Every structure is written in structure tokens, then in C-alpha cells.
Amino acid sequence: MSISEFFHMGGYAVYVWSSYGLAFVVMLAIFIKPVLTRKQIIRELRMKYRQQERQQQDNAQAEN
Amino acid sequence: MKLPAIVHKFSSPRNFYVMSGKLIPWFAWPCLILLVAGLYYGLIEAPADYQQGESYRIIFIHVPSAWMSMMIYMVMAIAGAIGLIWRIKMADIVASASAPIGAAFTFLALVTGSLWGKPMWGAWWVWDARLTSELILLFLYLGFIALQASIEDPRNAARAGAVLALVGVVNIPIIHYSVEWWSTLHQGATITKLDKPSIHISMLIPLLLMAVAFKLYYAASVLMRARSELLKREQNARWVREIVANES
Amino acid sequence: MDAKLSTAFWALLKRDLRLAYRHRNELLNPLFFFVLVVMLFPLGTSPEKELLMTMAPGVIWVAALLASMLSLDTLFRADFEDGTLEQITLSPHPLSVLVLAKIIAHWLVTGFPMILLAPLLAVFMYLPDEGIGVLMLTLAIGTPILSLIGAIGMGLTVGLRRGGMLLSLIVLPLYIPVLIFSANAVNTYLADLAIRGQIYFLMAVLVLAITLAPIATAAALRISLE
After folding, report:
1. Of B2, B125, B213, C63, which has the fewest Cβ atoms less than 10 A away?
2. What is the residue range of C190's domain?
3. Min CA distance, B130 vs chain C (Å)?
4. DSSP secondary structure letters along chain B
């Protein structure tokens, strides 16, 4: 089987390749989304914790 | 009924986070290997079908997606029930993390079914039993997702979702049976070649490879979703602080 | 059912019926809606007798589905807002049995009138006279199922501010088997074929719904009240 034949899919190229392409895109998106949300959550939490620490330090200084 | 203590210990948020972090690569890499093998056998090795030509290769996506859509709903309902009965937070998180993945597979099963149907039936949509059931299943998923999204408190959202998923599980066989009965009644001899009774071994191998790959894919991605959800929910716990601090 | 539980059951049933009687104007709305939806179909397609006759059972049943879904709002909403529902959950009796009393009362004032209206709609849709009996029979078995399944959805969404659209998304997919078998029973009967299978199926679903739906509704209500 030649490469052009493979991509031609016996005339059903549009249907076969759009099925596989769509499955690829959807599955990739589902897989990547939690990676991105995780990064974002960690970034947000780091800011939050820093703020909390700063507040604690300020409070400690005010008490002194 | 009481669960053994070890279950609670294992399902504590921190242990779950650590364990799942170790497990994900064990799911993800075999999944990738099986996907490549399945694509190779499915697209290159398997011969063209004598009736449908090359278009039948869509079933290597369509059928595993349809299987996954059913399986994930079951997992969702079981996890929801565990969360409802034993109040295990991780089960709740797994249930709600499964829903979007299940909906995505249902959507894939529908669209690939339609893409396969166009050259076979000459129409983008035919009220065939499998496609109709998948469409209803998609709405069950969407109802679950919408219900959980509209309840603010995560505990209540999880419990309400679990009740709905359990009601759905009781209903799915009834719906499935009714739709099947309805479709045979109205269409008689429709071509339901998507599930041929005698499938040749050269087509069965890639089908099974893809099916296992999809299951591993689900396991890896549901754990990833659960982990990031866990960080958000447990943000006041000390172990989350440690993880955030260690993350570069 | 011990004596006290049955007293509570009947008391709740009577209370709901009395309340429904006091607000009887509200009860007419789902019925008007039922008629209105059916009326739209001839206007949207054509008044041809042949066409309407074949569509009649399906159209009437779709309208019944929508009307009974819309009527669910009166099932728990008022009791939820004035705190009665919370009182009911605090009673020593099993909530699922009390919920069943409420569902039965609700069906008597919404589902039951729909059965009585069916002959009128059958005339609108040119349904042959011999089909009217079967249509009413399927409504008699089917509408209680709709009320029971709908109660679960209403229990889950009663505490939400915009629960209406969500309710339809949750409940309508679960109504599908009732629609398929009921509409088909009428059509099959008109084709002079046996409909025992369809009726048995509907009865089996009704029995299943009576046993399981009150439990699920009770669980849903407890979650909504938290």
C-alpha cells in the first residue's frame, strides 16, 4: 500500500480522517486541561500562601 | 456496613494525591503504546472490509468510545454511591471528574457514528438504536454536569449528583431496551453493521487494543482531574502547602 | 404500615388535596398547556386528517410529558419555601412514605385530569374512536410514572434558584421509555395488533417507580434541605 493510497482511504478519506482527527483533538484537550488547571491552581495557591505569611508577619510586628 | 480502616487510610486526600501521582505514568505510557499499536493495526495492517471498504476503520474509534461512554457512567454512579454511603471525599471527586470525560466519549461516539453513517446510510443521522441511546446518554451526562454546576456547596453537589447518577443507572437498561425495541419496530432491517456478529480477527485485534488504550486513558485523565480538584479543595491543609512550596 | 404511619400518610394526602383545592386556579395551567401544545401541531404542519391521525398518539403523549413536567413545580416548591418540607423530614416516619403521599396527591390533581382531557385532544387530532380507550389506559399507567420520576428531579432542584430548565434536562431523558411504549401501544392497537406486551412493560416500570422513586426523592430532598 502506498502512502497516497493510505491517505485516500478508498475514497472515504474525509470521513475516516475527520473521525480520527476529532478523536485526537478531543482526547488531547481532555488530557491537557487538568495539566493547565493544576499549574494555575498552584500559582494561585502560592500567591495566597505568600499573602497569608505576610499578614502573619505584619501582625507579629504590630504586636511587638 | 463499615469499610475496613485501610480503605479510609488509602482514600485520605493526601495519600490519594501521592499514590495517584505515582500511578498516572503507569497508565499513561502503556496507553500511548497501545494507541500506537492499535492505530498501526487498525489503519495499516487490517484489510479493507469487503462491503464497507475503508470506511469501516471508523469503528476503531466509534466502538471503544461507545463502550467507554457506558463504562464511565457506571464508574460515576458507583463512585457516587460510595461517596454517598461511606462519605469518602475521593469517591465524590472521582465521580465529578469522570462526568466531562464520559460526556466527551459519548460525543465522540455520536460524531464518529454520524461520520460512519454518512457514506453507509447516505445521511448524517439515522435513528438507529445505538446512536439514539448514545444521544440520550449524552443528555444524562449533561444533566449530571449541569446539576453539579448549579449547586455551590461541593458536598451537596456531590451527593445530589450521586442520587441522579444512581437513578440514571437504574434507567439506562430500561431506556436502552425501549430504544432498541422502538428502532427494530420502525426500521426492521436497518444496517447495524457497526456491531457485526462475526468480526474477523484482524479487525478484532486493533479494536481490543484501542478499547484497552481508551480505558487506560480514562484512568490516567480521571486521576489527573481528581488531583487538581483535590489541591483546590484541600488548599488549607498543610500537605498542600508543602506540595506548592516544593513545586518549582 | 403501622397505625401511626398510616395516619400520617392519610393526613398528608388530605392536606395536600385541600391545599390544591384552595389553589385550584393554578391547577388549570398545566391542563391548558396540555391542550395548547397539542393544538400547535395541526397549526404547525397541516390539518390533513391522515397526517394528524398517524401523529396523534405521539403528539398527545409528548404534550402529556411536557405538561406533567411543568406541573412538578407545585409538588414541593411551596412547602420548601414556607418550611413545611423541613418539618416533614423531621417527623419520625420514613420520609419516603410521606413523599409518596405527596406524589399521589399531586398526581390526583394534575395527572388524573389529563386522562379526562385526553378524549378532547383525541378529537382534535382525529384519533379514531376505538383508540381513545387505549390512550386513556396508557395515560392512566404512564402519568403516575411521570409524577414519580419527576419527583426525583424536583427533589434535586427544589433548592436551586434557576431550577426550571435544569429540571427539564434531568427529567425528560428519563421519561423516554414511557413515551415510546405508551405512544406505540395506541398505534399498535389501531393497527389491530396485540398490545399486552406494551401494557405489561408500562406496569412493570410503574411498579419499579413506585418502589424506588420515593426513596430516591427522599434522599434528594434531604440533600436539598441541607
Report:
1. B2
2. 3-225
3. 15
4. ----HHHHHHTSHHHHHHHHHHHHHHHHHHHHHHHHHHHHIIIIISPPBTTTBGGGGGHHHHHHHHHHHHHHHHHHHHHHHHHHHH--HHHHHHHHHHHHHHHHHHHHHHHHHHHHHHHHHSSS----HHHHHHHHHHHHHHHHHHHHHH--SHHHHHHHHHHHHHHHHHHHHHHHHHHHHHHHHHHSS---GGG-SS--HHHHHHHHHHHHHHHHHHHHHHHHHHHHHHHHHTTTSHHHHHHHHH--
